[in-house]
Structures are given as structure tokens and as C-alpha cells.
Amino acid sequence: MPKTPRRVFISYTAEDLKDFADRVIRVVQLLQWVPIDHRDWAPNGVRTVPLCRQQVKDSDIVVLLVAQRYGWIPPKDQGGDGKTSITQLEYQWAREFGKPVVPYLLADKATKWPRAHVEWRSNPKVKQPLEAFRAELREFAAAFFTEDPDSVTEKLQLGLQSAETLIAAGSADAAG
Fold first, then answer.
1. What are the percentages of helix, strand and coil residues in the chain, rounded to 5?
2. Who's near 60: CB < 8 A, 6+ residues apart?
3. In angstroms, how far is the first alpha carbon of the chain from the final one?
4. Contact 16, 69 (CB under 8 A)
5. What pairs with residue 101 in β-bridges?
6. CB 119 within 8 A of CB 130
7. Which band of pLDDT confidence, cut at 50, 70 and 90, is reported for residue 158?
8. b/e string for 85-122 if b means 16 or more Cβ within 10 A?
């Protein structure tokens, strides 16, 4: 019986990381798995937060890319709490649903990161939650990436294979 392809949810802030997400999509497709990218969702009348939650739930693995943007913070009337970014919510849901998470963080040595992509410069109130989120992810970081979008692919296949092993073993821990 052929193995069912894994569904890989890609969580990231699109304004700064779309080129990085494109690299993840390529690797996922090379594995003959299915990438789940919010850029591909057609308007269907479902609010963003419940749709994201359902997509995470229906996925097998979550790849998380975090740089210097905290991202959209959904208000309570749209299903958020008015404090937590959608990217961090996707991470929390993955953990809640027992999905392996393959997290990637922008390396501290990435000194050429565009100033326009450092969200706290224009919105200082996101600096603390972003840094707290990045600190939490450092505990599980599968890899770090730099300004070069190809840097995310260096260890991605290994991280995905580790996640596949966790699924086979029935573990809910993050891959790393």
C-alpha cells in the first residue's frame, strides 16, 4: 500500500519571509508531500483564525519560520486574544494537537536583515512578545537561517525526516 503524503503546514509572516517559505515548499514537494501555505487559500467565507486552526489540525507537521516580525495579532472578535500573533497561535495549536514542529529562527548573526523587516522599530509594543516567543522557540530550534533564503533548506529535509520519525513513534514533541 502506498504511503500517504504528509501535509506540512508552513507558518510564517509573509511580508518578510515569503521567499523563505518558497524554499520550504520546494523541499516539501521534493519529498512528494503536500505544502499548506496560507497564500494558496481561496476566500471561502471562513474567518482567518478558525481556518488557520483547522489547517494546523489537519496537517501532519508544522514548519515554523520566525525572524523579526511578530505579525498580525487577531482581535478577540476575530477569534484571537488581542495579544498573540497568528504565527504564535499556529505554533500553540500545533503543540495542542500534538503535531511535530520544525522551528527555524533568524540567526542572531544575520546582521544584514533589512530594517524594514524589523517590526519593533515601527511598533515597539511587539518587541517583548516577539523576543519571548523567539526565546521559547530556541529551546526547540531545529535550525537557524540567515538573510539568504536558501539557508533555510540546509537542514530542512533532516528536520522533516525527524518529524516523520516522531509521527511514526507517536511522539508529540517538537522536531529538532
1. 50, 15, 40
2. 6, 7, 8, 99, 100, 163, 167
3. 29
4. yes
5. 62
6. yes
7. confident
8. bbbbbbbebbbeeebbbbbbbbbeebeeeeeebbbbee
Give CA–CA dist 166/152, Å, rounded.
21
- Do 162 and 88 contact (CB within 8 A), yes or no? no
CB 23 within 8 A of CB 12: no
172 has pLDDT over 70: no
DSSP 50: H
CB 17 within 8 A of CB 65: yes
Q: Which residue has the higher pLDDT, 129 or 176?
A: 129
Q: How far apart are CA 174 and CA 176, in angstroms?
A: 6
Which pLDDT score, from 0 to 100, does residue 45 have? 52
For 30-76, the pLDDT digits (tens) are: 999 999 998 886 555 557 899 999 999 999 999 999 999 999 999 99
Confidence of residue 173 (pLDDT cuts 50, 70, 90): low
φ and ψ of 94, to 5 deg: -55, -45
Cα–Cα distance between 93 and 53 in angstroms, integer?
7
* pLDDT(175) > 50: no
Return the C-alpha cell found at 38: 496560507
